[in-house]
Amino acid sequence: MFFCDRRRLGMGKCNFKVGVDGEKQRTILLIGGSGGIGSALIQSNLFNSNIACIPTYFANKPIGSELPWQYYDSKDLLSAESVIENLSTKCDIDMIIDASGAFFASTIEKTSLDTIRDVAWTNFVAPLALTKIALKFLGPSGKIVFLSSVTTQLNVYGSSVYAASKSGLEKAISLLGPEYEKSGKAICGIRLGYMDYGMTYQINETTRNQIKNSLPKGEFLTIDELANLLLKLFYSDLASVTGNIYDLGVK
User: Fold this and answer.
1) 53 lies in a domain?
2) CATH value at residue 163
3) Tag placement on the chain: N or C end, fewer CB within 10 Å?
């Protein structure tokens, strides 16, 4: 489950041992790197930056990749906590990026109860539990970043379950900001506009093209635009970050 390619960074062999000065390796933790936006982030300039060592958590084995991975079960909260606790004994977790998510577009009449449960759990309940876990195991001055959606600001027909779960997540982030700041850590969210990843490939091509043509530049957001914002947040002071929801390509 731990992955760090310092060869790609030109830094030689990577390990998770405590250094000779007694300090732990600084770390970024990515949850949800098995597909969609999370998978694209692995190839972005975030993971080609000057950050020394980047273990990556995959919820599933990355498609078409030989990268090491280990199962992260967001539906088993005790297991999820154990995984992050184990990492915290090896590394100071400077930032957790939760790129997991479940997108579903349908009218409530046609949506099964199982789907409502799964979308609400993946997009809201599991992330809310992760805020508790992260508060406990983030390194000093650590940050946790969640990804939200432009649908929280729109009235898109058939998006009620998805938009409601993301709206709940955004509210939780705002309310938890002071709690995190009090503990010397930060929590924030990024409200993503339409990207050429993830949910835009789960809608029909006609609708997808209509959305693309309606965008200011006629183009979807690129993954490096998200990566650049994440890097900015990584280096920002806690007080300027915690509790905030950042718009990226929404307006």
Assistant:
1) yes
2) 3.40.50.720
3) C
Residue 134 placed within a domain: yes
Distance, CA of 188 to CA of 65 (rounded, Å): 30
Domain containing 222: what range? Answer: 25-248
Tens-digit pLDDT profile for residues 154-203: 787 777 888 899 999 999 999 999 999 999 999 999 998 876 655 554 55
Q: Which two tokens stand for residue 50?
A: 């000057």
Residue whose tokens read 């390509």: 249
**Cβ-contact 203, 194 below 8 angstroms:** no
Instruction: Please count the structural domains in the chain.
Output: 1
The phi, psi pair for 190, rounded to 5°, reads -120, 120
Pairing of strands 186-192, 143-149: parallel
The amino acid present at 58, given as its one-letter code, is F
> Would residue 152 count as lying in a domain?
yes
Q: What is the DSSP string of 233-244?
A: HHHS-HHHHTT-
d(C-alpha 181, C-alpha 179), whole Å = 6
Alpha helices (H) along the chain: 36-42, 77-90, 113-120, 126-137, 160-182, 205-214, 223-235, 238-241
State pTM to two decimals: 0.80
